[in-house]
Task: inverse folding
């Protein structure tokens, strides 16, 4: 082989360095976080659990009811919902079934915002009784020890926000299994590397624990009513004030609800496009995290059995170890074993979505096309609003 061929083969091995960093970061994260996560029998400040709700999610009653079964002395559960929303009968049943819980309904955000979820959060924060907030999406289900666990880090006044890992309750089809294995083997691998290199400066919508003071410090939720990825911004804006943002090893469950592969791909592409528009250089850098395509490039450069075994064997071995470490050893999700054969398929799909994201200049949000300029959603001119987004 020529020197150039060797150089290209070395380039093709860069994703393996990323995989090794992910393995190291994962081990360090779970060892450190488990050591810090002591039981919480005595730190129980009053909490307001805030839920902006729109539409009826699958298994909504059980999701909401899990928050009513908390082993916690003083908390309220506050929903913001539109009058006539299909989830309203479920919420009314919840109030009847749990009379011992303080459950309040707020109707409408009272605001005109691009991101109506964030507008609802603006009202929820303003009308919450307490100064500690637990904000969760409507598809989240938790165990009775959830509130005690997620509030514990706030003993330290330097902590301004916390978030949790999450997994699906049960996957009913191939699309949901693909989404689940992608989160565990790929997305959380990147999160572990971020924790190792730069700390946690974001939160996940499945759990945002924060304080009234931290939210007020960045101007309140009204400052991000015209932004996508509000959960990412919420954690970033807290971190920018000098607070620590904690990623807890506690795993909450999210009810999988992808009815079709098309819906799944559309949502993933929208999310990937948002990430490209928010962090263009970081998004471009993902090129060095895709082991499968680089392994195929290596084989194309030097098509031999030795190269195929070396690159594909290393790729598969590291991906299996990574998935086991995060999903089974770290998150205790034993069903991950059955989904491991889907890891290469996920990697191929994720790489294709990443490539496709470079062909889009707008994102579609609630039926309207938007540009993302300086992090804010700006509606495309009316004459283009009904065109196919690019």
Result:
């Amino acid at each position: 082989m020529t020197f150039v061929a060797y150089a290209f083969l070395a380039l093709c091995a860069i994703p393996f360095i990323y995989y090794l960093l992910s393995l190291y970061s994962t081990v360090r994260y779970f060892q450190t976080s488990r050591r810090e996560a002591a039981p919480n029998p005595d730190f129980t400040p009053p909490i307001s659990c805030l839920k902006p709700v729109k539409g009826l999610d699958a298994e909504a009653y059980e999701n909401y009811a899990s928050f009513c079964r908390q082993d916690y002395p003083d908390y309220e559960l506050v929903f913001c919902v539109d009058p006539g929303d299909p989830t309203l009968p479920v919420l009314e049943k919840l109030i009847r079934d749990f009379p011992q819980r303080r459950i309040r309904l707020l109707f409408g955000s009272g605001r005109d915002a691009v991101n109506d979820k964030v507008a609802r959060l603006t009202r929820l924060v303003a009308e919450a009784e307490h100064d500690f907030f637990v904000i969760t999406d409507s598809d989240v289900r938790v165990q009775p020890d959830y509130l005690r666990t997620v509030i514990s880090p706030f003993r330290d006044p330097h902590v301004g926000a916390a978030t949790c890992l999450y997994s699906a309750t049960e996957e009913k089809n191939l699309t949901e299994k693909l989404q689940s294995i992608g989160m565990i083997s790929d997305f959380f691998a990147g999160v572990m590397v971020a924790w190792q290199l730069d700390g946690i400066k974001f939160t996940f919508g499945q759990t945002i624990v924060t304080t009234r003071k931290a939210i007020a410090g960045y101007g309140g939720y009204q400052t991000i009513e015209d932004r996508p990825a509000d959960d990412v911004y919420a954690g970033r804006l807290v971190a920018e004030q000098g607070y620590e943002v904690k990623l807890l090893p506690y795993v909450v469950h999210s009810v999988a609800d992808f009815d079709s592969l098309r819906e799944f791909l559309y949502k993933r592409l929208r999310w990937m496009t948002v990430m490209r528009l928010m962090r263009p250089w970081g998004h471009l850098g993902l090129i060095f995290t895709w082991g499968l395509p680089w392994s195929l490039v290596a084989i194309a450069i030097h098509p031999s059995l030795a190269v195929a075994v070396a690159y594909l064997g290393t790729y598969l071995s590291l991906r299996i170890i990574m998935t086991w470490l995060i999903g089974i050893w770290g998150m205790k999700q034993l069903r991950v074993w059955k989904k491991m054969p889907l890891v290469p398929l996920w990697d191929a799909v994720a790489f294709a979505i990443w490539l496709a994201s470079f062909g889009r200049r707008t994102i579609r949000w609630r039926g309207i096309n938007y540009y993302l300029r300086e992090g804010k959603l700006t509606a495309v001119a009316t004459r283009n609003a009904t065109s196919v987004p690019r």
Q: What stands out?
A: Residues 11 and 264 are 32 Å apart (CA to CA).
